[in-house]
Amino acid sequence: MKHIFRIFVKIMTLWSIGLGFRIRIRHESKENRKSTFFFKGPAVIISNHNHFLDFTILMYVFAFRYVRCIVGKTLYESSRFLQTILNGLGCIKVDRFSFDMEFFFKAMDVLKKKGVVLIFPEGKFSTTGKIDEFKSTATLLALQAGVPIIPVYHTADYGCFKRTDIMVGDRIYLKDFCKTKTPSEKELTELTEMLRNKMLELEALSKKGGGVK
User: Fold this and answer.
1) Backbone φ, ψ for residue 57 (5° rounding)
2) Residue 212: inside a domain
């Protein structure tokens, strides 16, 4: 039933998102253009976070994959209607104010089954439009699951017929920078900061009109 619901939502919303928001997708390099629509295998997608519509934009970018988004409990339980929609889309609820790791184990299970997990490492909406500090969840998840990270920057300039620019970065294999699945706190902090710096690079590349289609 959820599978049918998910397909229905994509059919009803993605075409309007693509046209109404005038989405333009570019890639950091020519070699990695297949990192969006047709990529295969497990991955952790990370993105900047400015609006509750961010998930739908990323769902459009990766339209042919079942993207399981980690969503904060506050938004998840803001209304019964929204909760029904998010459940139907297979979102994973997280309470960022508790130490409950159930969401982490659910995400790990998705990745073990060669699925895709979307995380907004800032943990909440950015109120300034700037990229805030990253939490380490995505870093640890990708390391323990042994999967690549796909960084994505978007302008979040939503509105009818405004242009929304998407910059998809090259895949990042954290195992190339850390040889253990359980890094020290210092290593975890450094790797997480590396991911944030990559997002800042994609932001700069997007603003100067770089990348390839």
Assistant:
1) -65, -45
2) no
Token look-up 């993207």 returns: 67
What is the Cα–Cα distance from 142 to 139, expressed in whole angstroms? Answer: 5
Residue 70 belongs to what domain range? Answer: 2-207
Q: In what order do the strands lie in the sheet with 149-154?
A: 23-27, 164-168, 149-154, 43-47, 116-119, 67-72, 92-94
Closest by alpha carbon to 115, among 63, 44, 62? 44
**DSSP code for 51:** S
Q: Residue 154: CB partners within 8 Å, gap ≥ 6?
A: 47, 48, 54, 57, 58, 164, 165, 166, 167
Rounded to 10 deg, the angle between the 102-112 and 137-145 helix axes is 40
H helix or E strand, kind and range, residue 141: helix 137-145
Domain total for the chain?
A: 1
| Strand positions, DSSP E, the chain | 23-27, 43-47, 67-72, 92-94, 116-119, 149-154, 164-168
In a domain, 142, yes or no: yes
Query: pLDDT tens string for the chain (213 positions)?
Result: 666 766 666 666 666 666 667 788 899 988 776 666 678 899 999 999 988 778 888 888 888 888 999 998 887 778 888 888 788 788 898 887 777 789 999 999 999 999 999 999 998 887 777 899 999 999 999 999 999 999 999 987 766 667 888 999 999 999 899 877 788 899 999 999 999 999 999 999 999 988 888
State the pTM of this model: 0.90
Q: What CATH number is given to the structural domain containing 63? A: 3.40.1130.10
